[in-house]
Amino acid sequence: MPIHIISLVLFAALLHAGWNALLRRGADRLWSMTIMCIAIAVTCVVAAAFMVPPAAASWGYAVLSAVLHVGYNLFLVRSYRVGDLGQVYPISRGSSPALIALGAAVFAGESIAPGVLLGIALVSGGIISLAFRGRQLSVPSLPYALGTGCFIAAYSVVDGIGARLSGAPLAYTVWMCALWGVLMPMVYIGLRDARSLFSVRPGIFSAAAGGLVSLLAYGIVIYAMNEAPLGAVSALRETSVLFAALIGAIFLGETLTARRILACAVIVCGTIIIG
Question: Which end of the chain is more exposed for a tag (fewer CB within 10 A), N or C?
């Protein structure tokens, strides 16, 4: 893989961990996430005006992916209510490659190579280690973090199929993100009300910036996947797990124990092997 692609993917991994840190730090994370989605929707609608629409066969997948992204948002917000960035992020991100590999074996009849089994075992071991606080199992954050990983795996598979059918993967991604960015405010209003969503609060600009950062990170990964092997790019992106642990310790005051560092490193190794 060319060095400039490696550098770009590592930068995207840092950006991805960064916007998660912004979300984790926010006082009202559901509101912050919704503002992020609105910023993404506005940007994508503008970009879509300059693109040829994706093929009709891909629109159903785009809608389904947008719905799955909303589920991902809700589970991620819930995870951060009870878990640290350095705990929730590695579990949710690390579990998704293993879930995709297992899902492909169960639903698509793909065989699992011994190396992939080793990667799944490493990811699972790292997740189990992170699920403990001292000698106590931290049950409250674990189901939602794993649920977030399930949504990541689900929308990754849906987007993979949809992008192939679209004939224009970039346009597909832009329109899917626009739909996602429209659905999330509707869900927020259903759960709360429109007045609380559109009220000006402290942190509105940082939340909007977080949305743009997440979009930039995803755009970099899409570019990298066009220039380098998909598996290698996807695996390298998971180094964001380590960035999240460091950001949590430096900026959020989270405890960075030797066991947590080792668990994150094991998860990264596992995702690289799977990739």
Answer: N
DSSP one-letter string for 87-109: HHHHHHHHHHHHHHHHHHHHHS-
Query: At residue 98, does pLDDT exceed 70?
Result: yes
Q: Do you know the residue count of the chain?
A: 275
In this predicted structure, the answer to whether residue 47 has a pLDDT above a threshold of 90 is: yes
Burial 170-185 (b: 16+ CB within 10 A, else e): bbbbbbbbbbbbbbbb
Domain ranges (residues) in the chain: 3-274
Q: How far apart are CA 98 and CA 231, in angstroms?
A: 13
Q: Is the dihedral angle over the CA atoms 251, 18, 36, 154 positive or is it negative?
A: negative
Answer yes or no: pTM beyond 0.70: yes
Question: For 190-226, how does the pLDDT look when each residue is reduced to its tens digit (9 = 90+)?
Answer: 998 888 888 878 888 888 999 999 989 888 887 787 7
- H helix intervals, the chain: 3-25, 29-48, 59-82, 85-107, 114-130, 141-166, 169-191, 194-198, 204-227, 230-237, 240-251, 258-274
Q: How many CA atoms lie within 13 A of 252 on its CB side?
A: 27
CB 238, CB 268: distance < 8 Å: yes
Beta bridge partners of 137: 132
Name the nearest CA neighbour of 201 among 40, 21, 35: 35
Question: pLDDT tens digit string along 27-44?
Answer: 789 999 999 999 999 999
Cα–Cα distance list, 205 to 27, 32, 34, 129, 182 (Å): 14, 10, 12, 36, 19
Q: What residue type is assigned to position 255 of the chain?
A: T
